[in-house]
Amino acid sequence: MIDNSNHVKANPLMTLPVPWVYVIAYLLGFGVQLLFPVEIRPVFWLSFTQAISIGLLVVGAILAVWAQWLFRKEHTTTDPNQTSSRLIISGPYRLSRNPMYVGLFLIFIGLSGVFTLVWLITCQIFVFCYLNWVVVPFEETQLNKSFGEKYIAYCKKAQRWI
Q1: What residues contact residue 108 under an 8 Å CB cut-off, 6+ apart?
Q2: What sign results for the dihedral spanned by CA atoms 23, 24, 25, 30?
Q3: Which are the contacts of 121, defined by CB distance < 8 A and separation ≥ 6?
Q4: How many CB atoms lie within 10 A of CB 83?
Q5: Gyration radius of the chain's alpha carbons
Q6: pTM
Q7: Mean pLDDT over all residues of the chain?
Q8: Tell me: the pLDDT tens digits for 138-155?
Q9: pLDDT higher than 70, residue 7
């Protein structure tokens, strides 16, 4: 077993925890929405969009909490700047290597639709690019170093996203 208190060489682009990246993106999108409002019409589409958005919000919250709970249960870290003590491959991790991020994405999209904040979708594109090309490759490199062949085999079974 690897001691999870060991820190790995941090990526300078990852000094802010990912949930805070979402919070900042949400606030930025909300601010842009206030400055340059975009409205969705007609009313039927608004109701339909909000109903779907509530579903996405609920599914995202369940997925993110479930994935986080598995890490807590196994006493391993979610901090990419620390070495993981266990490779989690059960629950939602059977299908996605990043269900916490998928859950946060669904929550973000759900909030965007519930409150009809169109600019938040644009912010989500930037968050996804940051996750896909900075955070996740860094995490994958660290997991490969820690778990080697076991991690490579897992990557063949589970998709990066969904």
Answers
A1: 22, 25, 26, 60, 120, 124, 127
A2: positive
A3: 29, 109, 112
A4: 19
A5: 17
A6: 0.87
A7: 89
A8: 999 999 999 999 999 999
A9: no
